[in-house]
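Researcher: We plan to redesign the surface later, but first we want a full-length starting point. Tokens attached.
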């Protein structure tokens, strides 16, 4: 807002101008403010007929104080009887969320993912997420749609249940690695094709050939690590994770 927040003196000028019958545009011009600013100020404080400068100024101060009041702390995260320190869990959740954001995940999506990740069950409803994160249902819906599209969670509904539950499991990063592997192999094939077209003996062709070699090596390493992890999980669990792509 040009000129900063409206002062009590500004509001006195607005009240006097309204009494003269001036419009918002003219009042704004005199105060060096957009007409929309004057309109919002008057509308939220009684309208043109009931606007009072002192009352408007006090109401604005009251709203500002109310907005500055700290929100009550988020509900403690149940520890499922494991004796966890709630504050330590909250601190870790915040740091893990920040790490996900650093890795490129949008902040709301990172908050939802972290909230699911730290639960022992790995499942929460939309209402659970709204309560824990203190955000709107629409924000949760958008985040869930994004994470589901990325293969980072799934939906389930128990027989007879009315609400969907969002599920995260131990293979969350396996799906992410598979997507990265697919992209890596696509780049490797394209780089190899570039080397063939440009000629491996030319500087540009050699650059593509070198890139293809590195990318194919990475793909091989990715596959080896993923297969080893899947085998380790199979040895630990009576229900081995799937290896389908």
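Model: Full-length starting sequence:
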């Amino acid at each position: 807002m040009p000129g900063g927040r409206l002062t009590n003196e500004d509001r006195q000028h607005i009240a006097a101008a309204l009494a003269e019958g001036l419009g918002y545009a003219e009042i704004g011009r005199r105060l060096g403010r957009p007409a929309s600013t004057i309109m919002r100020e008057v509308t939220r404080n009684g309208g043109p007929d009931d606007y009072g400068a002192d009352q408007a100024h006090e109401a604005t101060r009251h709203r500002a104080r109310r907005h500055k009041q700290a929100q009550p702390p988020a509900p403690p995260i149940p520890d499922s009887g494991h004796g966890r320190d709630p504050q330590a869990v909250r601190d870790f959740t915040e740091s893990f969320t920040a790490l996900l954001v650093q890795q490129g995940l949008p902040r709301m999506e990172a908050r939802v993912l972290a909230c699911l990740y730290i639960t022992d069950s790995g499942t929460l409803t939309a209402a659970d997420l709204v309560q824990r994160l203190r955000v709107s249902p629409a924000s949760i819906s958008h985040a869930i749609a994004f994470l589901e599209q990325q293969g980072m969670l799934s939906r389930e509904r128990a027989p007879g249940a009315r609400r969907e539950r969002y599920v995260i499991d131990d293979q969350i990063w396996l799906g992410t690695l598979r997507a990265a592997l697919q992209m890596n192999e696509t780049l490797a094939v394209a780089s190899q094709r570039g080397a063939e077209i440009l000629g491996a003996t030319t500087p540009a062709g050699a650059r593509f050939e070198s890139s293809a070699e590195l990318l194919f090596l990475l793909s091989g390493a990715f596959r080896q690590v993923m297969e080893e992890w899947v085998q380790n999980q199979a040895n630990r669990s009576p229900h081995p994770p799937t290896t389908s792509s």
